[in-house]
Amino acid sequence: MGGNMVNQEFDIVGIGNAIVDVITDVNEEFLNKKELRKGLMSLVDLNSIKSLSEEIEIKANVSGGSVANSIVALAQNNIKTAFIGKVGEDKVGNSFIKGLEKENVIFANTAQSDESETGRCLVMVTPDAQRTMSTYLGISQKLNASDINKEVISHSKITYLEGYLWDLDDAQEAIKKAIKIAKDAGKIVAFSVSDVFCIERFRESFLDLVNNEANIIFANEEEIKSLYQKDNLEDCLKIIKQQNKIFAITLGEKGAIIINKDEEIQIKAQKIEKLVDTTGAGDLFAAGFLLGFINERDLEYCGNEGVNFASKIIQIYGARL
Q1: Which of 124, 193, 200, 268 sits CB 3.0–4.6 Å from 219 for a disulfide?
Q2: Residue 319 domain-assigned (yes or no)
Q3: Given this model, what pLDDT does residue 5 score?
Q4: Which residues of the chain have pLDDT under 70?
């Protein structure tokens, strides 16, 4: 961690799963044979990820994890960033930290070792550009309160959390601690809902965070409907508009909608020449939005920037521009 962290000011610190994304092309038969549900993410153990990895050809290897993807995109746009996550003292962990450092992201934790290895996510892309993921969380899921870097959070304008964290055993305490540090320092908390399955497992605590703690919330249409258990977006928007905060909701090919207190801002989609791989679309939307926000631009600009970033990422492989 070094002495360079102390008293350093950051625009944003992300807290998330430290996972290396392993990207590959597969066909539908491969998914059927492995009994993987297309378009969804499933959690697997170390043996499963190793055996799956033996049957594929790796296209790309990137320091991934939803929040990490957003943080890297911000760092690439000259935003002062830090990341808190947990990696092992192994080859994959080393490549994760190096991948962040190469992008000028400060890794605000140290590698730690136990019997689990650094987390990785096998991203299997089918010809229709859908991504199916098998994730081994490994040591990333052992993030706990002692991993939370108080110095960095209290010196960051925004603390950005992902819903995927809730699947971790001790992360609830870590999240509470991080939010408290940010709030006590008068800083902003941003939260990305992440995944419909996460919502179904942790709806109560997600709603608590959205209603009582977060200042900026990112979700897609499916996620927001699941969160509020409504069948249509309009019903969700009615609830959201009473909340006195910012919601940035992506609507796929329909663009996005930004709610600021009771104001509604429609963001148009951009024309996509060639859809290659939807990996990272939500992560990059959040990055574009936050880039505008940190640079104190208006919310319509932020929303357009989000759509702009997301449009670029789905025309290339992986979650990095």
Answers
A1: 193
A2: no
A3: 59
A4: 1-7
> What is the residue range of 33's domain?
3-313
Residue 116's Cβ-side half-sphere holds a number of Cα atoms within 13 Å equal to: 20
Q: How many domains does the chain have?
A: 1
Q: Does some domain include residue 320? A: no
pLDDT per residue as tens digits for the range 117-176:
999 999 999 998 888 999 998 999 899 999 999 999 999 999 999 998 887 778 889 999
